[in-house]
Amino acid sequence: MHRNIGNRNAGSNEDVPLINPFLEEPNDIHCIEGKDAILTCKLRPDIPPVKWLKNDRELTQNEKYIISMEDTQHKFTIKNITESDSGDYSVQVGLFSKKIQLNITDPFLEELNDIHCIEGEDAILTCKLRPDIPPVKWLKNGRELTQNEKYIISKEDTQHKFTIKNTTESDSGDYSVQVGKFSKKIQLNITDYFLEDPYDIECIEGEDAIFSCKVWPKSPSGKWFKDDNEIKPSVYCIMSTVDTHYELKLRNTKPRDSGEYCVQVGKFSRKMHLKIKEIPREISADERNAYMDPIKSGEEVRQYVRIQVIGKDRVGKTSLVHRLLFLDEGKYKGKSTDGIDINRKCQIRTSDGEWIVGEVDTEKEIIKRILQAANIKQRGTDPVSELSLPIPADEKQMHNGQEPIQIKEKKIGTKTFNEHDEVPKLKDETQYASNTSAVSSTNLEENKLNMGENVEKQNNPDQIADSFTLSAQPQHLLSDKTDHITEAMMEKFNELILYARAKKEEMTSKGLIECGIWDFAGQKDYYASHQTFFTPHANYRLVADINEEIKAIKHDEELDFDSVG
Ligand SMILES: Nc1nc2c(ncn2[C@@H]2O[C@H](COP(=O)(O)OP(=O)(O)O)[C@@H](O)[C@H]2O)c(=O)[nH]1
Ligand SMILES: [Mg+2]
């Protein structure tokens, strides 16, 4: 009978049972991934062969699908199910068929929450999962984490836990729990007590050093350490807390304060270094104070006007600067500027906006005075007696019979530059520097610029006390006297500081502001370097050749303004 019925022949009436073979309705199945799903149905005995289909396609027995039967109970087992096994199945007996839906059950019983934890604490990631689920995997940024000293995986009933011991900043990130094909994300945010870290400090001895940091509100109070020893408050070590700012102020630092410091807030700490730069012992207490006072008082305003002269090559920039500064145009032969020439021979009076041209600037003055000091010690004499000393015969010879030229600086302050002032040839200086008696005209020119233009031949006896002489010296004499030179310079140091200060005060009282005229080279080669010097605070003078068609110039300048010299 069974065989007859089983001898299927579509359309043949004798093969088709006329009564419903299903003894009861099959149920939809919910199954957890990784498990076996068993689709069952109760069928009458003596029925034609039973077919199992998925999405209307017949499934045959194999490793994955097992078809079995026990009395009236028919079973279709799907082994080790995955997400792809879910779908509409049906059991078909002749013309009768019933649907069974297989659902892969989400193993997660609840949604997961992101975790916030403070650095140093243990972070516990948890999730509730169905019982009877395939193995649970914990991952960070897509990579599986296995149990070790840092990570502890545990479970209690449906509650699964992943503990991260002693968290640090690097533990923060995207974690996920994976069960079969299902996974859920948990974001771990490690909250640091420190909102702003303290940073390393380098300062000069005598300055105050202040370490500061900002922490989360309600953080525990901070402790400060130096080289692992807790710092106790004193008049030199002041600790303070303002809102969530912690501060350690070390007053009047000494070189021995250098070292590693640490601030600890609860379990968290930050390390930082303090480096104290020592002031040379040779500098006296007064000088130190003179140096430290402005540092402590905050800032010193430098008033300086920068005028930048720009424009194409050979349009007359340098000529314009020379004219503005009353420089001897006869001497300027239209030689191209290399790079940038900075002319500091000009000051601006704030009271009436008057330009004062031709002042000797402080820096050059200081250099001259140092050279003066060096020269005096070389000769083993002081400036007053110097002129009365006879010039040694051999020295005279070196000058080809000329007297050594004594050069006097012009009086600083009031005298404006006179273009007819005689500019001496500093032949002796050149020899001093190059240790040779042959002097090229180029050297002469360079020395003139180095030493400042405001020099004239010494011919006024009233100014002898201030005079200095630069004369040729054989090399061996120079080396013997190096220590004396250093000594002389140190002696002069105090005087120089006083001079510079007086000069500054004088300028301030007269309302004078230093002004520098920056003459840029116009050749294209220099364009790249010019960008460095362009600043919105400078005053620009664009020079153009009016012989060129103005439209073309305008176009050119607009295009190239950023790269114009
Ligand atoms: N005709 C005329 N020539 C000038 C004028 N200004 C400068 N020059 C000449 O143009 C040439 C280039 O001048 P210079 O100042 O070196 O140009 P810079 O390259 O822009 O600095 C020199 O030979 C100057 O003598 C001017 O106003 N008129
Ligand atoms: Mg030029």
Automatic annotation (TrEMBL):
Start and end of every Ig-like domain? 17-101, 107-187
Work out whether the entry's keyword set contains Nucleotide-binding.
Answer: no
Origin: domain of life: Eukaryota
Keyword Disulfide bond part of the UniProt annotation: yes
The Gene Ontology CC terms held by the record are:
cytoplasm
Q: Which SUPFAM superfamilies match?
A: Immunoglobulin, P-loop containing nucleoside triphosphate hydrolases
Q: Which Gene3D superfamilies match?
A: Immunoglobulins, ROC domain from the Parkinson's disease-associated leucine-rich repeat kinase 2
Subcellular location as annotated: Cytoplasm
Q: Which UniProt keywords apply?
A: Cytoplasm, Disulfide bond, Phosphoprotein
**Which PANTHER family is this protein grouped with?**
OBSCURIN LIKE CYTOSKELETAL ADAPTOR 1, SI:DKEY-31G6.6
**Name of the protein in question:** Ig-like domain-containing protein
